[in-house]
Design goal:
The chain has 14 helices and 32 strands. It has 564 residues and is of the alpha/beta class. The protein folds into 2 domains: 197 residues, Exo-inulinase, domain 1 (Jelly Rolls); 248 residues, TIM Barrel (Alpha-Beta Barrel), CATH 3.20.20.80.
Length: 564
């Protein structure tokens, strides 16, 4: 009680001093500005970018995403997905200096990673600066998807002249204004709009047809903006004892439950990363190991994103299934256009194709548990004839043997699979797959098993009953082959409960068969389930086990099927 009058006396005294002009509170010390030298951050997994002592060297990769028929070719410029990106909650300035520009130099800043689908790329809100000589293009995208998503249209597209192409380019946010400058010259000042609204900054460097050096690259912001570097979202994700993989291991310790994954959401979406790592013990790179992603130009290889996925898998105790070598789709233009009309042309093209196989398989040697050496060999109309793709035209109908032997020579330990759709239930297509696999081995191939994709786009036409799947697995087991359920996804056209039942049926049937060694679903979260319909309209599917970070009834049914 004695302390109270003393405390009151102090307060009153201080109050009197305030009136007299004394005892004022000191002005807060402003937080110092934060500067980050981005040249010394992590760029090792960015295609076309090489870190050196004097900065970054950027070269053209010609990365493009072709459509299913081999046409088109939407540009797919690289982004620093597995390395450093920035977090900032207010004003900032980024500056870059380019040198030795042989053709063009592009610098892109994204709100979030783009969504990469099989045949297209969804552009998020972004700013892209492209320097050619003394001309600078300033393109701003607001993340709105137009009718043709393969041809994103900027909401602002401006072409300006810079007085000194080697002067630093700066991008500054000040409140609701975006300022682009070269040296001391303001080139453009425009409303911020939807750009940089997430608090994230993802950086990309690329060239369409040349090369350039980045001699400086810095980020600056007031201390109050909270500017900082951030690593991959997956870094903090951990396997769960209550997840699908852990539950399956109680019954079959060697059985793997996997998912197809993309690097963008794996590194940029904490929900996706948590869902994946908590539940799955195997990953299949959804697109990153397809030919157009690994070798966009003949003799040029961009392993970076696939390597990053494999590194994540290893760090989380997952195995990796490679996808894919010989395929009729997802081929770069150079591969599609290989000549095959004469014996001499076929010999030359065979050398190019086998060089690709050897380079790819050797690069990944020892890091893949299994690999689709041939993917979807039969007609797309669910027939039983081999597609006459470049592999067929160069090597003939026995091309699976040639590919299998080349893979085995480069990595004898990787388990080889032929992966096909529409062969999940007994019928002519399944018979053709079985015959192709056995014939390939009889002629000197090394096929370990088959992948049954189990895509269920329509429950009326594609449903997989338990009895028919059990018979299928027994058929391949009797032939001495192993089976992967390799790409299972299920439409919700008849409701979530029916979808859940079908998911659980496929998993439980696979788990009960000793021939079925793994189960993989073709995606993780519906946030990334996008397609283009027959009318060219963008559609979001709801075919996966998670939706917007939350488990679906299908996930719960899968857990019950595993005894969880």
């Amino acid at each position: 009680m004695a302390a109270r009058p003393h405390a009151l006396k102090v307060v009153l005294a201080c109050g009197l001093l305030v009136v007299l002009g004394g005892c004022t509170s000191p002005e807060p010390t402003p937080e110092p500005d934060v500067t980050i030298d981005l040249l010394h951050e992590d760029w090792k997994d960015v295609p076309g970018v090489t870190a050196g002592g004097d900065g970054l060297q950027v070269s053209a990769t010609a990365g493009r995403i072709v459509q299913q028929d081999g046409g088109g070719g939407q540009p797919n410029p690289p982004l620093n997905l597995a390395g450093t990106h920035l977090m900032v909650n207010g004003d900032f300035t980024l500056s870059a200096t380019f040198a030795n520009v042989t053709a063009d130099a592009s610098w892109a800043l994204y709100d979030r990673p783009p969504v990469i689908a099989d045949e297209f790329r969804l552009e998020p809100a972004a700013l892209r600066l492209t320097l050619q000589g003394d001309k600078l293009e300033i393109a701003v995208f607001d993340g709105t998807q137009r009718k043709d998503v393969t041809q994103p249209v900027p909401v602002h597209d401006e072409h300006v002249t810079v007085s000194d192409p080697q002067a630093p380019l700066t991008v500054s946010r000040s409140g609701d204004t975006l300022r682009i400058a070269s040296g001391a010259d303001t080139l453009s000042s425009l409303p911020l709009g939807k750009v940089f609204s997430t608090g994230e900054l993802w950086l990309g460097l690329s060239s369409d047809s040349g090369a350039f050096d980045v001699t400086s690259l810095k980020a600056d912001a007031p201390g109050s903006a909270g500017l900082r570097t951030s690593g991959a979202a997956v870094a903090d994700a951990q396997p769960s004892a209550a997840g699908l993989q852990a539950l399956a291991a109680r019954t079959r310790p060697d059985f793997r439950i996997g998912a197809a994954v993309a690097l963008g959401p794996l590194t940029g979406d904490a929900d996706y990363a948590r869902e994946l790592v908590s539940n799955f013990g195997s990953v299949t790179p959804e697109n990153a190991m397809k030919p157009q992603f690994l070798s966009p130009q003949q003799g040029v290889y961009t392993f970076d994103e696939a390597d990053a996925i494999i590194a994540v898998a290893k760090s989380k105790g997952m195995i990796v299934h490679g996808h894919t070598i010989a395929f009729s789709e997802a081929m770069p233009r150079w591969m599609q256009d290989l000549p095959s009309g004469t014996d001499a042309e076929r010999r030359s093209s065979a050398e190019a194709l086998l060089g690709y196989v050897t380079t790819v398989v050797t690069h990944f040697k020892g890091r893949l548990d299994s690999l689709d050496v041939v993917n979807e060999p039969f007609d797309v109309d669910q027939g039983t004839s081999l597609q006459q793709n470049i592999w067929y035209r160069v090597f003939g109908p026995g091309y699976p043997v040639v590919v299998s032997q080349a893979v085995y020579k480069a990595d004898p330990d990787v388990k080889q699979f032929i992966n096909e759709n529409g062969a999940d239930v007994p019928g002519h297509r399944q018979d053709a797959l079985l015959k192709l696999t056995l014939d390939t081995n009889a002629q000197g191939g090394h096929i370990y098993g088959v992948g049954l994709q189990a895509h269920i786009y329509s429950l009326e036409t594609d449903a997989i009953p338990q009895a028919k799947l059990s018979k299928t697995l027994a058929t391949f087991e009797a032939a001495g082959l192993r089976v992967r359920i390799s790409e299972n996804d299920v439409t919700d056209e008849q409701g979530k409960d029916v979808q859940a039942e079908q998911y659980a049926t496929v998993l439980a049937t696979c788990l009960r068969s000793r021939a079925c060694i793994s189960y993989t679903t073709w995606g993780v979260d519906d946030r990334y389930d996008w397609s283009i319909d027959d009318h060219g309209n963008l559609q979001q599917g709801h075919d996966f086990l998670f939706n917007g970070g939350q488990p679906t009834p299908a996930y719960d049914a899968m857990k019950r099927a595993l005894g969880g």
